[in-house]
Amino acid sequence: MSSILDIDLDYFNLIENPEQRLQELLDWGDCPIAFIVEKHHKVYSRWKDRVKRGTLTQPSHILHVDEHHDMMDQKRNTNIANFMYHAMRTWKNCRVHWMVDTPIDSPAMWLDNDVWKSFSHRFSLGPNRPHGWPKPDIVSICTSPNFISNDLLQRLLRSIQKFMTGCTGEAYTGNSVSRRGDRTPFSIRLQEVQARRKQPEESFADAVNLTIYRKYLTNKD
Fold it and tell me: Phi/psi at 167 (nearest 5 deg)?
């Protein structure tokens, strides 16, 4: 069984010293970031894919660091509001701790009574990790650009650079971008990244990650 550290950067909207808090979480996890997504439900498909391929055992623990619990409906298709419902439904022995300082509501408000009853003994919430919570085997991050200011997003991404070795992200296409004021053109596009699949997995991961990381560190006027 495995443990997942799942971080949505919108969690840090109302947190004092957000960069420090994020660093503390990742230092505790002591595990490189596996991938970064913009829409949070995409991590669920990444987790399932790794379980299917045998590179991750079925999760027994998910530390869900997020402003939202992401169990707001029971629709068949996953979306940003319900993917944790699907995770708990898929992995029936998995415990989920929603790390949140001020919960906006409870999954009990959104789920059918019988569903919540089956989940509630495996679900907890609070501002701290439960005692004895296992360190992660995998770390995923969601940037949620529609729920966080660009300034805070860039600050957080700069602060986690050292944890991003071998990380994959959603590939970006478009114009050249820059990093920390450096206007050197960076023109890796989706087609070029896809072509790199012929290389070892780590090389492909680094290529995709560099694209997403430089995209977010673009200086905007």
Answer: -75, 145
In sequence order, the β-bridge partners of residue 124 are 97
pTM of the predicted model, to two decimals? 0.78
Least confident of 23-32, 35-44, 99-108, 210-219: 210-219
pLDDT in tens, 46-77: 999 999 999 999 999 999 999 999 999 999 99
Amino acid identity, residue 206? D
